[in-house]
Design goal:
single chain; alpha+beta; 3 helices; 11 strands
Amino acid sequence: MKTIPTKKYFQKIIALTLLFITCVNWGQSQNSNIDGSGDEPEVSFYGKIIDTSGNEYQAKDFLISRKYKKIQVYAIPPSTDIDPNSNVTYLDLVELIHQQTPDTKVSIEVKEPGKIQTYKGRDYIAVTFTATNGTPTTYLIEANRTVTCGKIQGQSVEEKELHFQAIKSIIITSYENKKEKISELVTKKNN
């Protein structure tokens, strides 16, 4: 005599299937990306970074808070009683570098490294972004935000993560869009 599967049997099968799917997806998400957040960024930025200790080194794959676009910065309010979150600007490093000419570079400078300004109980640092057209604009950014990059040492790359408090300046000299490069290679191969 055959037994009819029970409701508990089906629940166990569904639970095991969901567990299996979850484990497979988690295993696939592990990699060695410079920022540890998933796939390599589709855009690599190259340049140099100078920290507050005076160390200067070549680096690549700059990310601010693990992003290269939609970086949230704030206008400086006239009073510490006003929340900077009421005036938000979103920066895109690609857009800042698009109009670059040979004699200009994108720079990100911390005017007073380590100096924290408090607005409405939150800590910020003033950071000046100079686009390739040469127009500097100073914004506030949360003091706990970080810059991740790969410090280039000969043929190897050392992963770095710095808080804005430890940065004096970043100068971006060029960028490479990996997605466009792959698209170009596929187009050349097909022609």
